[in-house]
Specification:
globular; 186 residues; alpha+beta
């Protein structure tokens, strides 16, 4: 697993590789990816959960019990629950987001998928999702997975990042360019 290309630390990469091998051996890659995506969403939605995994003040067993309760309530499968428990026992919960990203990146790489990070000003409609997916699949030769984020500060338009390439057609960027151009005139 290439830690450099995914922005994942070496530690997180090692844990992600171990989980990937375990899930692959149990023929549970899809279920594990689905569970990890759920955990990632929980972390994104809850500042309290992010504080829990990052807190050095909580004992290992407290973090482990709290995380297990959250994961059971979220319906996460046993493999991922056991993995997160091990990560908590080893005092590595702060690296959990990187481990999740590393696992998902490796799964996408092995499946030949490319992830396009799309930032939009407002949530996309189903028709807009479909059109965007079709356009990106055509431009990349197929198998593009969309990772869509909403950032109202863009005002309008979108930013699309695929690998090292980026296309920024946001209104915010256009207004900033206009502002710079106007400074040159005055």
């Amino acid at each position: 697993m290439a830690a450099e290309g995914t922005g994942v630390s070496e530690l997180a990469s090692r844990y992600a590789s171990a989980l990937f091998d375990l899930a692959d051996g149990q023929q549970a890659l899809d279920q594990t990816a689905q569970d990890l995506t759920s955990v990632k969403a929980l972390l994104a939605e809850s500042a309290e959960l992010r504080r829990l995994i990052g807190s050095p003040l909580l004992a290992r067993d407290e973090q482990e019990r709290a995380m297990d309760a959250v994961l059971v309530a979220a319906g996460v499968g046993e493999l991922v629950r056991r993995f997160v428990g091990l990560v908590a026992k080893n005092c590595r919960l702060a690296a959990l987001p990187g481990m999740i990203d590393g696992f998902l990146a490796e799964l996408a790489r092995r499946r030949g998928e490319v992830t396009a990070r799309v930032t939009v000003a407002r949530p996309l409609t189903d028709a807009q999702w479909a059109e965007l997916a079709e356009l990106l699949n055509k431009s990349e030769g197929g198998n593009v997975k969309l990772d869509v984020w909403v950032d109202p500060s863009l005002i309008g338009g979108m930013i699309v990042k695929i690998g090292s390439r980026m296309v920024d057609s946001s209104v915010r960027t256009k207004l900033n360019k206009l502002k710079l151009a106007m400074k040159g005139v005055g």
